[in-house]
Amino acid sequence: MNKSKNLLAFGVVAALGFAACGSDDEPADEPAETEDEAPAEEAPAEEEAMEEEPSEEVASGDFGVGLTYDIGGRGDQSFNDSAAEGIERAAAEIGITASELVPNADGSDRPELLQLQADSNDLVIGVGFLFADDTVAAAADNPDVNFAVIDDAMLDFDNGGVPRCDNCAGLTFAEEQGSFLVGAAAALKSESGNIGFIGGVAGFGLIEKFEAGFEAGAKAVNPDIVIQSQYITEAPDFDGFFAPDRAKEIALSFYDGGADIIYHAAGGSGAGLFEAAKEASEASGSKVWGIGVDSDQYNTVDAAVQEYVLTSMIKRVDTAVFEIVNTQAKGEFAAGNVVYDLSLDGVGYSTTGGFIDDIVDQLEDFKAQIVAGDIVVPTTPEA
After folding, report:
1. Is 157 found in the same domain as 113?
2. ABC transporter substrate-binding protein PnrA-like domain: from which residue to which, for each copy (predicted)?
3. Which helix (H) or strand (E) holds 64?
4. CATH number of the domain that 77 lies in?
């Protein structure tokens, strides 16, 4: 089957390389993302369902891929933009034709967008776990089309972790592992022994993985470190991923409370963190930092705040998108879930700016211990 025509007639976003307006990480990895029926923390069951590692062999072929973003689309400097990088790479290296769509502000048109993509493409990708339930329905209605969802395992854990549908795959990440490394970086670089975490939305299990890893990494370096933590909203209110003013307010309160480094896992809200770091640094004369998420945010933030981005936790949504397209091109699509962890370079940290060059050896040692299984990173924060 070759459904390669674009959806340009629908006037949303199509054919690679054109930027649309958006929000901001995140989602990163967002939001990222239906009710999280397939919690990513169930990694062992997920890996059993789909054990293939990403292939280095790049297939080729002309077929259609429909990429449907999380709310806000391109321009979020993180989760959606990372997905866009993956589809652009697929277009360049594999020769696919891509259609890009963006949900409305409340996401209520996700089912319609998935069907539009299925009408014209061989593979449909939903960027974010909030697509999961609608994807199951669309997959049943379009058995000749394959589907994939970022940040949902697409497994039925009530029935032993079997795939929720025969033509849908889940692409999830070990966010806790990457967050462990930036938590260790924060503790190694902190001069005050006081750091912070800002989560976009609590209560659905995903962002808690970021917090848990960050906390564990920091305490592996300094068991007595103080960690201030706050979420912007609680599910089902996902506005916390699109509230930079609120993130800035929280960050300023953390800096006032003694924090000198703050990590955010808050999507588009993260822009407010870096503004706060600049403001607090200039007001006090003592430099404070922010840590980005999903993408290398040193390369995506405004130039005026670049110098305050200590590092970023990289979540390789681009890799996941490219690999599922490559798998489709090779005729090897399989239902189930792939977990992108440190061993697959699915998560990691950035060194752009050179601010953590002096501690890279220590971070790489922690990474090796995690990959070897000597350190098992928790997926839920300490009570």
Report:
1. yes
2. 71-379
3. strand 64-68
4. 3.40.50.2300
The region, left, alpha or beta by phi > 0 then psi within -120 to 50, assigned to residue 21 is: beta
Whether residues 161 and 290 share a domain: the answer is no
| Rounded Cα–Cα distance for residues 372 and 360 (Å) | 18
Side chain identity, residue 240: G
With respect to residue 378, please indicate whether it lies within any of the assigned structural domains. Answer: no
- Whether the CB-CB separation of 46 and 153 falls below 8 Å is answered with yes
Q: How far apart are CA 332 and CA 242, in angstroms?
A: 37
> Hunting for tokens 């391109």 — which residue is that?
74
Residues 25-73 have pLDDT tens digits of 333 333 333 333 333 333 334 333 334 444 556 766 689 999 999 998 9
Altogether, the residues listed in the chain come to a count of 383
pLDDT tens digit string along 118-153?
999 999 999 999 999 999 999 999 999 999 999 999
Q: How far apart are CA 383 and CA 362, in angstroms?
A: 28
Beta strands (DSSP E) in 281-320 are: 289-294, 309-315
pLDDT at 16 > cutoff 90: no
Q: At what angle do helices 360-372 and 175-189 cross, to 10 degrees?
A: 150
Distance CA 152, CA 283 (A): 42
